[in-house]
């Protein structure tokens, strides 16, 4: 081997080592628990023209809208070692115009109606960064040959994160969070007098993955847990029988509401469950009972909730979701001191978002290579 050949060989090896080092570093940074959130740097990225990189076809992933920025940031972070996968984010108003250029779409709660879907001429997969698909016209997607999928809440931290938010909202209402802040501002001590989860009966309306994680966390507080589910598989009955003190089906929701000190809404939104927490339901609750919603705003009838707060029948409302989002900060329901609202962040934790970003990234890689899609639940 000549001197020139040896020199070229060493340079090639050095380049390979550098690429491998970068790839390993990117992976370590992505999974590091100390990895810095880059949401503060998030910008709306204008979609670029499709380009060919390294003579490979580019698979393009579109995130819809500027909200939930770390869903895009963490996915882009994960995909940095793979230049043949291009992830973009578009403003909601621009999605109908640019969606035709993409193969995979991450909806981010955008209303994907038949008009938008009909313009997705190259789309093969439409998925949610999480569980809810209530804004997706699944029939229209099926008609246009587009698969629709969600990311199951178990195994990626989403259900755990949401259950923790339910605990946070319950404690915030029981301890009278808003009144405590007013007391601090007024330099008052020893007030207000709050409540405790000890001895409280908590009704989990919709005992799915989030409900199970919530029940696990309520037991150490000394709460009594009751729950309803349309059907109780034997596996749940066996493995989690010690978590729920009383089980019921959908027909029992009003009876269970009358027994509860706190109702936590954990249902998926559908035609059957829309505004299931209405005047009849809230009237069935004990006077002074608390209502917590970590699922979807459309599960609770706004007027019924407002009127029950105004009359004093409802003891408090803690909700991570709203009837229209982003919610109007001047809405009159926020005037009540026993209302706590958070900006749809129950599942938005670094652990869950990096886990789900990995799912989206892996699906894009599988799609690019023509492999079966794993880690997601197809619904059509």
UniProtKB/TrEMBL annotation:
<dbReference type="InterPro" id="IPR029753">
    <property type="entry name" value="D-isomer_DH_CS"/>
</dbReference>
<dbReference type="InterPro" id="IPR006139">
    <property type="entry name" value="D-isomer_2_OHA_DH_cat_dom"/>
</dbReference>
<feature type="domain" description="D-isomer specific 2-hydroxyacid dehydrogenase catalytic">
    <location>
        <begin position="94"/>
        <end position="371"/>
    </location>
</feature>
<feature type="domain" description="D-isomer specific 2-hydroxyacid dehydrogenase NAD-binding">
    <location>
        <begin position="168"/>
        <end position="346"/>
    </location>
</feature>
<keyword id="KW-0560">Oxidoreductase</keyword>
<dbReference type="Pfam" id="PF02826">
    <property type="entry name" value="2-Hacid_dh_C"/>
</dbReference>
<dbReference type="InterPro" id="IPR036291">
    <property type="entry name" value="NAD(P)-bd_dom_sf"/>
</dbReference>
<dbReference type="InterPro" id="IPR006140">
    <property type="entry name" value="D-isomer_DH_NAD-bd"/>
</dbReference>
<dbReference type="GO" id="GO:0004617">
    <property type="term" value="F:phosphoglycerate dehydrogenase activity"/>
</dbReference>
<comment type="similarity">
    <text>Belongs to the D-isomer specific 2-hydroxyacid dehydrogenase family.</text>
</comment>
<dbReference type="GO" id="GO:0051287">
    <property type="term" value="F:NAD binding"/>
</dbReference>
<protein>
    <submittedName>
        <fullName>Uncharacterized protein LOC108817353 isoform X1</fullName>
    </submittedName>
</protein>
<dbReference type="Pfam" id="PF00389">
    <property type="entry name" value="2-Hacid_dh"/>
</dbReference>
């Amino acid at each position: 081997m000549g001197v020139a050949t040896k020199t070229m060989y060493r340079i090639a090896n050095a380049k390979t080592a550098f690429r491998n080092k970068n790839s390993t570093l990117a992976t370590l940074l992505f999974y590091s628990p100390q990895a810095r959130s880059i949401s503060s740097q998030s910008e709306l990225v204008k979609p670029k023209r499709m380009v060919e990189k390294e003579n490979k076809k580019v698979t393009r992933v579109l995130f819809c809208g500027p909200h939930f920025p770390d869903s895009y940031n963490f996915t882009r972070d994960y995909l940095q070692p793979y230049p043949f996968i291009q992830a973009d984010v578009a403003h909601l108003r621009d999605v109908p115009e640019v969606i035709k250029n993409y193969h995979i779409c991450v909806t981010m709660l955008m209303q994907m109606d038949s008009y938008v879907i009909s313009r997705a001429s190259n789309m093969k997969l439409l998925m949610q960064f999480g569980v809810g698909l209530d804004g997706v016209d699944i029939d229209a997607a099926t008609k246009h040959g587009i698969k629709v999928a969600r990311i199951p809440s178990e195994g990626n931290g989403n259900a755990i994160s949401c259950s923790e938010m339910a605990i946070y909202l319950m404690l915030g209402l029981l301890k009278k969070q808003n009144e405590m802040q007013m007391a601090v501002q007024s330099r008052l001590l020893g007030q207000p007098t709050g409540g405790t989860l000890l001895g409280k009966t908590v009704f989990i309306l919709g005992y799915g993955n989030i409900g199970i994680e919530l029940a696990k966390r309520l037991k150490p507080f000394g709460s009594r847990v009751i729950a309803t589910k349309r059907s109780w598989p034997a596996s749940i009955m066996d493995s989690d029988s010690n978590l729920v003190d009383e089980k019921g089906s959908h027909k029992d929701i009003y009876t269970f509401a009358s027994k509860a000190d706190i109702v936590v809404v954990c249902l998926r939104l559908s035609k059957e469950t829309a505004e299931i927490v209405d005047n009849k339901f809230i009237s069935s609750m004990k006077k002074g009972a608390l209502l917590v919603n970590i699922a979807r705003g459309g599960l609770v009838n706004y007027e019924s909730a407002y009127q029950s707060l105004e009359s004093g029948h409802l003891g408090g409302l803690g909700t991570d979701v709203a009837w229209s989002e982003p919610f109007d900060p001047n809405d009159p329901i926020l005037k009540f001191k026993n209302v706590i609202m958070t900006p749809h962040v129950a599942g938005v934790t670094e652990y869950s978002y990096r886990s789900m970003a990995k799912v989206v990234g892996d699906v894009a890689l599988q799609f690019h290579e023509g492999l079966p899609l794993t880690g997601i639940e197809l619904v059509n």
